[in-house]
Amino acid sequence: MSKKIKLLVLLIPLLVFFSTLLMINFFDKNPQKYKNSDDVNLLDEKTRTKIIKKYGLNTPSNNKLSNTTSDIGYSYNNKSKHKSSSENKETNSSKGNAIIENKEINFLFYDEVSNNKIINLTFNRHFDGQRVERIDLFQNDVFVTDRVSLTINSISGNKLIIVLNEYVEEFNSICIYNSNNEPIFLNVGQYNFEKYNKNDFVSHEDTFKLTSFHTKDMLNSFEGVFEIIGSGDYQIKTYIPKKLKDMNILKEVISTSDNEYVYKCSIDKEYYYKNNLKTINFETLFYHVSNENIDIKYKFLEINIILEI
């Protein structure tokens, strides 16, 4: 065997070895770009580590975890999670640097009279049949509440219906526990709530109903068009969550013709792209104020609006 061939035989394994090291180093430094799309709902390691440290999480004593919980690999100690509201506010002051990737943001009302809120959670990953015994809500790495009940104790496909039994300002992740009390941390998008008292509005005696609605992908915005038919001629107004209104991203127009009303709303695409969003969901109340008494608000209709890419 010639010297050149011997040299090549020696060099090729070395080149393969060093190439492998370079690839491993590259993927370690860029995990988010190449992670499996099935894991988009799983909280990132940095967030889970903060929760573990703050609320007393420990590695589980047994390794008989499901495929889902093995990605998490922690058990939960509830004793240390209940912090005072002042502690929560202080910790949450850093929420501007969000460490959870949110593709969805929701602006919803929480009725003080009924003191509960039904919420439909949708995941990008299917957990069909996954048993759910209880749930904790978090905002980033800050515990929010465990006053959550379930309509059904399992996830159907990629959907889970929960009932929030106390008012909270916000949450963006949950920890669900299976029948073995093993935790699964999931990103659910950003949920914002505004206190609302349904007794502040009087139900209108006239009948109003939503006859049609559709969304449009416009050149520079996403638009929703809602057609409403009533039994009278009124100056209809909208009542939307204050947090959304103060952001000045929602454009609204109401046009009237006889007893027909058309409500158009839109949000610029630039806001979606800039904030890495796919869906903006908000609740809207339609009402009018009496000419005789401006303090009385007559509610016609309440709808949930979804504008998404």
List the helices and strands and how they pair.
Layout: H1 3-29, H2 45-55, H3 67-70, H4 85-91, E1 104-111, E2 117-122, E3 134-139, E4 142-145, E5 148-150, E6 159-164, E7 170-177, E8 183-196, E9 201-203, E10 209-217, E11 221-229, E12 237-239, H5 242-246, E13 250-257, E14 260-268, H6 269-274, E15 279-289, E16 297-308
Parallel strand pairs: 1-8, 1-15, 9-16
Antiparallel strand pairs: 2-6, 3-4, 3-7, 5-6, 7-8, 10-11, 11-14, 12-15, 13-14, 15-16
Brief characterization of the structure:
This protein has helices at 3-29, 45-55, 67-70, 85-91, 242-246, 269-274, and strands at residues 104-111, 117-122, 134-139, 142-145, 148-150, 159-164, 170-177, 183-196, 201-203, 209-217, 221-229, 237-239, 250-257, 260-268, 279-289, 297-308. The protein is an alpha+beta fold and 309 residues long. The protein starts with a helix and ends with a strand.
